[in-house]
Design a protein that fits this description.
The chain is an alpha/beta fold. The protein contains 11 helices and 12 strands. The longest helix is centred in the middle third of the chain and has 18 residues. Bound molecules: ligand PBG and zinc ion.
Length: 322
């Protein structure tokens, strides 16, 4: 007797029945770039379909997204005044705090708001922290991040997501939030964030490229899988609620390993460069864009991601691809 695996592949109906990986719109978090001003909707060249929004146009776009089931968003602030000490990052009037307040006033708990917590879009030098003697100062930066997280929580953010890679920032942020009564504000840690060239288009979008040098003295070396687990376990001990791997596509092994080694929910960030590559090849007609996008989404889920942060989310739901 020959074992025939093709029996269960014969018809769509049976393929659907035995599918081992399923996707749900509830897994998606959709990123947004918020800028100062009014009535702004401004495209980002390297990220077709993604825009800069001012708070007012953001509210309208989120309203459309909510109808599709995009009810979890990740906010990045862009275009704020830059300084050495990143003081605009934790102002109660920051573009992010302002957007959070307006979104919460419009939609309340129908929208779940995550805010990115990092200084790189708010510093003159573009590094993810406070620079002294050509070095990003760890503990000083954690203080700023904690203030920034608190200002977002005060505006009404449901979850803060530190993306800086300083040591001890989860503990610093957790303590700050708790001391100020925000015990229910969650933390999604960019736990395993690699120093990656895949962030290129984002740095244009967020105007956050480092003026000098790179981020290798704080972001992770992509050659070090064991060290990724040390990062993740420390964040877990310090009180993170969700652990993230970023980028996603080139790091499916890390997503899988993390999923096998933690009981926390695992998120992955399908970053700007991954998005732009698919979009560019799709526009050229070199790949079937829809099929490639969905294959990637299933890959994230199969690898072990419970949560997928992706710029594709809106299009997938808009066009009914799942
Ligand atoms: C800022 C930040 C970056 C991304 C998210 N937060 C860029 C970086 O670290 O240089 C990348 C997101 C993307 O590429 O889509 N710390
Ligand atoms: Zn940063």
């Amino acid at each position: 007797m020959l074992i025939r695996l093709r029996r269960l592949r014969k018809l769509p109906i049976v393929r659907e029945m035995v599918a081992e990986t399923r996707l749900s719109k509830d897994m998606f978090i959709y990123p947004y770039f918020v800028v100062p001003g009014k009535n702004v909707i401004h495209g980002i060249d390297a990220m077709p379909g993604i825009n800069h929004f001012s708070a007012d146009t953001l509210v309208k776009d989120v309203e459309k997204g909510l109808k599709l089931g995009i009810n979890k968003i990740l906010l990045f602030g862009v275009g704020e005044e830059k300084s050495e000490d990143a003081s605009s990052s934790y102002s109660e009037k920051s573009v992010v705090a302002n957007a959070v307040r307006q979104l919460k006033a419009a939609f309340g708990d129908d929208i779940y708001i995550v805010t990115d917590v990092c200084t790189c879009a708010y510093t003159t030098h573009g590094h993810c922290g406070i620079l002294h003697d050509n070095y990003v100062q760890n503990d000083k930066t954690v203080e700023v991040l904690a203030k920034m997280a608190l200002s977002h929580a005060q505006a009404g953010a449901d979850m803060v997501a530190p993306s800086d890679m300083m040591d001890g920032r989860i503990l610093g942020i957790r303590n700050k939030l708790d001391q100020n009564g925000f015990v229910n504000t969650s933390i999604m840690s960019y736990s395993i964030k690699f120093a990656s060239a895949y962030y290129g288009p984002f740095r244009e979008a967020a105007d956050s490229a480092p003026g000098k040098g790179d981020r290798k003295a704080y972001q992770m070396d992509f050659r070090n899988p064991n060290e990724t687990m040390r990062e993740a376990f420390l964040d877990e001990e310090e009180g993170a609620d969700i652990l993230m791997v970023k980028p996603a596509l080139a790091y499916l092994d890390i997503i899988h390993r993390l999923k096998e080694n933690t009981n926390l929910p695992v998120a992955c960030y399908n970053v700007s460069g991954e998005y732009s590559m698919v979009k560019a090849a799709g526009q050229k007609g070199w790949i079937d864009e829809q099929k490639v996008i969905m294959e990637n989404m299933y890959a994230f889920s199969r690898a072990g991601a419970n949560i997928i942060i992706t710029y594709h989310a809106k299009e997938i739901l808009e066009k009914g691809w799942m």
